[in-house]
Amino acid sequence: MGYNVITVSRQFGSGGRTIGKEVAARLGIACYDSEIIDRVAEESGYAKSYIKEQGEYSEHRSWIGRALASSARGGDLSNQDKLWIVQRRIILDIAKEPCVIVGRCADSILSGREDVLNVFIHADKVFRAERIVKVYGETDVAPAKRISDKDRRRAQYYKYYTDTKWGVAEHYHICLDSGRVGLEKCVDIIEELYRS
Amino acid sequence: MGYNVITVSRQFGSGGRTIGKEVAARLGIACYDSEIIDRVAEESGYAKSYIKEQGEYSEHRSWIGRALASSARGGDLSNQDKLWIVQRRIILDIAKEPCVIVGRCADSILSGREDVLNVFIHADKVFRAERIVKVYGETDVAPAKRISDKDRRRAQYYKYYTDTKWGVAEHYHICLDSGRVGLEKCVDIIEELYRS
């Protein structure tokens, strides 16, 4: 059977977003990345910058700490939990049409669907450090630290909401080292797999 | 730069060995799987059946238990350690020529070499259970248990000798779900990547 949706999970700086956008462009289908943030903002009323952080990155404490905090609220939902619910519904909605979805646990949210191709993009830290400076510019924080912080918080967020481990090969249909394989070649492989 | 060597790590029953052999045949290069066992047998004098078990699967106890046992031997090498050393030397030797090497931590042994393409093949348990019965026949042990035992022991062996985690995407250049992608298509992708 054919594929309709591609989810792209990615290490920070690996070029996964760029790959997702290019695959979508070649296939002539939509790519959702910041567009999801726009829709969550519309539906929730929260600011986009807040959603960007809370919709993919765990708060700084560990998921156990957050579970305890949630129980301390007497089981009330945190803002992050509320955003998760809105974001999840939006992802289920946009995945009714062929598209590429970058990040936001879409692979897990759409699990069980045979027409979804789950991709994970990673690269070594040297490649990613150089790339984030080129793409996002320098900041006060060293590139290596920006990478490890973002990855850790994405992994924590993923673990908390999906109860599975981010970056373990068996959760994805294809994982690619974009630093070694090259972004262009990653796009070729994913495009070809989707069409096959 | 081009590739010379492909290492194929694989979950039990995923067809990784079959994929490796087919890739090698198409590329006209050697494929080493049981051939490594033959060479280790020649050099070490151990029986092939013993090497097959000890050269890729950890003993039943955990790696901590094995480390303690080693220290109880007063630091003497276990048979498994001796086989590791022989096997490692043989892998370094055969990797001087273009080839495919299946399993046996070859990815880690050859790490740092830019001309080595590291592949990991996995598939869901239903696919693998059906496949091992078809390929290896039935045994007294249920297929699901055969799969989880072999995977666990491969992971333990890998952890013990390489100090890295088996099956984590970032240790490989490409990971493929053979059940979803199909064995033939996996071969196409790897062949094409090697030639690129």
Task: Explain how this protein is built.
- 2 copies of one chain form a homodimer.
- Chain A is globular and about 50 Å long.
- With 196 residues, chain A is of the alpha/beta class.
- The first copy, chain A, is built from 10 helices and 5 strands, in the order E-H-E-H-H-H-H-E-H-E-H-H-E-H-H.
- Chain A has a 5-stranded parallel sheet.
- The longest helix of chain A is centred in the last third of the chain and has 20 residues, at 143-162.
- The termini of chain A are close together.
- Chain A binds chain B through residues 11, 120, 122, 124, 167-170, 172-177, 180-181, 185, 189, 192-193, 196, and chain B through 11, 120, 122, 124, 167-170, 172-177, 180-181, 185, 189, 192-193, 196.
- Strand 5 of chain A pairs antiparallel with strand 5 of chain B, so a sheet runs across the interface.
Order of helices and strands of chain A: EHEHHHHEHEHHEHH
Average of the residue pLDDT scores of chain A: 89
> How helical, in percent, are the residues of chain A?
55-70%
Would you count the extended β strands of chain A for me?
Answer: 5
In the predicted model, the low-confidence regions of chain A spanning at least 5 consecutive residues are none
Rough outline of chain A: globular
In terms of quaternary structure, the protein is homodimer
Number of helices of chain A: 10
**Rg of chain A, Cα atoms, Å:** 17 Å
Proportion of residues in β-strands of chain A: 5-15%
What is the CA–CA distance across the termini of chain A?
Answer: 9 Å
Could you give the topology of this structure?
The structure is a homodimer of 196-residue chains.
Chain A: E1 5-10, H1 16-27, E2 30-32, H2 34-44, H3 48-54, H4 63-72, H5 79-94, E3 99-102, H6 106-109, E4 116-122, H7 125-136, H8 143-162, E5 174-177, H9 178-181, H10 183-195
Parallel strand pairs in A: 1-3, 1-4, 2-3, 4-5
Helix pairs in contact in A: 1-10, 2-5
